[in-house]
Specification:
This protein is mainly α. Helices cover about 60% and strands about 0% of the residues.
């Protein structure tokens, strides 16, 4: 396993005018940084007690459906998910 993630983004933008390369590079670097920060925040939310309480509740119909679909299509990812909470 690794603790790193490679994120690669490709965008095609036509601003309908000439834009200096340094300005494009600055904008892209800032957007990529902000995107990475938001991903880190989202990961923190998925590890919170409130989120885990809902997603591991065996009686929650939505998350039961998601787990069923993961079992069918993404079994290796489901194996990494937190186990279901004990009923009762």
């Amino acid at each position: 396993g690794t603790e790193h993630t490679l994120l690669q983004a490709i965008a095609v933008v036509d601003p309908k005018m000439r834009v200096p390369r340094w300005l494009v590079n600055l904008a892209v670097r800032n957007c990529c940084f902000l995107f990475a920060v938001q991903i880190q925040r989202a990961v923190a939310v998925t590890r919170s007690a409130a989120y885990l309480r809902v997603t591991t509740d065996p009686s929650n119909q939505f998350w039961a459906f998601i787990r069923r679909r993961m079992a069918e299509s993404l079994p290796t990812q489901l194996a990494l998910a937190p186990p279901l909470a004990k009923a009762g």
